[in-house]
Amino acid sequence: MLGGMNVATAPDAAVAVRWIAAFEALKGTVVLLAASGVLTFVHHDLHALAARLMAHAHLNPAAHYPGVWLAAIDQLQNTRVLWLALGALAYASLRFAEAWGLFFRKTWAELLAAGSGALYVPFEVAELVRHPGALSAALLLANLAVVAIMLRALWRRRAAGAL
Fold first, then answer.
1. Whose CA, among 24, 25, 36, 130, lies 20 to 30 Å from 100?
2. Phi and psi dihedrals of 6, rounded to 5?
3. What are the φ/ψ torsions at residue 105 (nearest 5 degrees)?
4. Which tops the pLDDT comparison, 68 or 146?
5. How far apart are CA 75 and CA 129, in angstroms?
6. Distance CA 28, CA 91 (A)
7. 110 close to 17: Cβ distance less than 8 angstroms
8. Is Transmembrane tagged as a keyword (predicted)?
9. Whole-model pTM above 0.70?
10. CB 113 within 8 A of CB 24
């Protein structure tokens, strides 16, 4: 307790964490929307491209070898689409769970946010070194801010004896 207020749930910390929760939910939503659009586009586009190539080469898609090639492309595409869809669903589910946990100030969500944010830092530093620019710098700074806010929330929780 600090001045009659629980340190782990101070208003400034709660607001910052809830903004991060909203951002995590937005990331999950964007991934689902992007994946559904990409999956729809890629699935239909690759089949259509293969059919156009066959028509350009004057191949009959109903003939044995062109049909086998088209079936193989469809099978490969279906497998890739399935894995891409499962990956997008898993990532979005993790982001939504993290957002829910952060919104309700769950310790596990703060740990998850700090850890997952920290995982991206080396990649963002490497990107900034390879391609210096305002966007790379802004993404790195934003991610460092998220990690710092989560670590601060966890530190406050521990100081209050809530961890």
1. 36
2. -65, 125
3. 55, 50
4. 146
5. 40
6. 7
7. yes
8. yes
9. no
10. yes
